[in-house]
């Protein structure tokens, strides 16, 4: 073999090595964790996903971590997946938040929307039921002997508090309604089944009711608002007990601070607040949900 041939032969493996080096993809940081967030499925899934997307964008910018929205099939799934650590942060209703804290030692309440400090349920009726608007809780006796539906069985604003107010009006939902009460599964569906006449009355989240009226997706010639309940604490964000271990010390505090900083001072923050129907994010504490826990225990929803 000539010197030229020998040189060419030696160059071949060298070129292969250099080519391989040049084509290597950037190294992936496998230690970089993804923050999994979710929310109870209390309304139309597409609207829920759009709302959570605004929060994903905001948190990624504030915390410099990957954030993923994980939809869940029902309220119970949000509680069980939070318990197993598959969900890091969840936007819970009052009852599901109580259930999650009781089942997940070390879970941390983070914050709530300003509107959640004085949340309300709204009672509606199909106009053919002949139920007129009432002025106080006692007037809810108008639903006696009517076909009535709640939302999800675990919904605070669509079941727990409405059942409490019906009880205050003297109605035992297991005996004083026409048949067993229904459970539509979500606030949107409660409107739909009452509008269709499948049920003569129902109760739901006042925020969804207002949003549907604004969007023109409820026929007010068929559905009447009967009563808005007294106020109570409801929705809030909660973080799991393993968040600090996975993302570094004090990450839970950073997460809380990021939420509380949402005040609409940037376009991204404005999008989040508009999506959540809020004016600001505020502090909260476990004591705010003691009434809901007490009512839930009476209904056998927590033990």
What's the β-strand tally? 11
The CATH class label of the largest domain is Alpha Beta
- CATH superfamily placement of the largest domain: Periplasmic binding protein-like II
Q: Based on helices, strands and strand pairing, what is the structural class? A: alpha/beta
Largest sheet: 6 strands, mixed
| Uncertain parts | 1-30
* Gyration radius, rounded: 26 Å
Architecture of the largest domain, according to CATH?
Answer: 3-Layer(aba) Sandwich
CATH topology of the largest domain: D-Maltodextrin-Binding Protein, domain 2
Provide the number of structural domains. 2
Supply the number of helical segments.
11
* Widest beta sheet: strand line-up: 2-1-3-10-4-11
Distance between the termini: 87 Å
Secondary-structure element order, as H and E?
A: HEHEHEHEEEHEHEHEEHHHEH
Task: Give a description of the structure.
The chain is of the alpha/beta class and 303 residues long. The protein is built from 11 helices and 11 strands. The chain has 2 domains: 34-117 and 233-298, Periplasmic binding protein-like II (D-Maltodextrin-Binding Protein, domain 2, 3-Layer(aba) Sandwich), CATH 3.40.190.10; 120-228, D-Maltodextrin-Binding Protein, domain 2, CATH 3.40.190.10. It has helices at residues 3-23, 45-63, 75-83, 94-103, 156-168, 187-196, 206-215, 243-247, 251-260, 267-276, 290-298, and strands spanning 34-39, 66-69, 89-92, 108-113, 121-126, 148-150, 182-183, 201-205, 223-228, 236-239, 281-282. The chain has a 6-stranded mixed β-sheet with strand order 2-1-3-10-4-11. Strands 7-6-8-5-9 form a 5-stranded mixed β-sheet. Strand 1, helix 2 (45-63) and strand 2 (66-69) form a beta-alpha-beta unit. Helix 2 (45-63) runs antiparallel to helix 10 and helix 3 (75-83) packs parallel to helix 4 (94-103). The chain is globular. The protein starts with a helix and ends in a 5-residue tail after the last helix. Mean pLDDT is 90; it is low at 1-30.
């Amino acid at each position: 073999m000539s010197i030229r041939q020998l040189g060419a032969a030696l160059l071949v493996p060298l070129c292969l090595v250099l080519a391989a080096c040049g084509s290597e993809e950037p190294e992936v940081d496998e230690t970089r964790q993804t923050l999994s967030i979710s929310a109870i499925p209390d309304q139309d899934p597409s609207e829920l996903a759009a709302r959570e997307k605004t929060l994903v964008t905001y948190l990624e910018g504030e915390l410099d971590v990957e954030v993923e929205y994980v939809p869940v099939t029902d309220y119970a799934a949000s509680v069980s997946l939070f318990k197993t650590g598959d969900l890091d942060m969840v936007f819970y209703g009052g009852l599901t938040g109580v259930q999650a804290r009781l089942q997940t030692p070390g879970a941390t309440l983070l914050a709530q929307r300003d509107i959640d400090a004085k949340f309300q349920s709204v009672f509606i009726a199909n106009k053919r039921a002949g139920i007129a608007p009432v002025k106080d809780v006692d007037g809810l006796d108008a639903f006696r002997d009517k076909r009535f539906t709640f939302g999800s069985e675990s919904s605070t604003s669509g079941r727990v508090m409405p059942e409490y107010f019906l009880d205050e009006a003297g109605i035992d939902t297991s005996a004083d309604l026409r048949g067993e009460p229904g459970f539509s599964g979500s606030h949107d569906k409660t409107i739909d089944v009452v509008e269709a006449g499948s049920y003569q009355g129902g109760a739901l989240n006042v925020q969804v009711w207002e949003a549907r009226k604004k969007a023109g997706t409820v026929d007010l010639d068929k559905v009447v608002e009967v009563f808005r309940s007294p106020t109570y604490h409801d929705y809030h964000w909660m973080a799991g007990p393993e968040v600090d271990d996975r993302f570094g010390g004090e990450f839970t505090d950073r997460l809380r601070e990021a939420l509380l900083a949402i005040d609409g001072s940037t376009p991204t923050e404005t999008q989040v607040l508009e999506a959540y129907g809020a004016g600001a994010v505020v502090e909260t504490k476990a004591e705010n949900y003691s009434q809901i826990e007490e009512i839930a225990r009476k209904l056998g929803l927590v033990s």
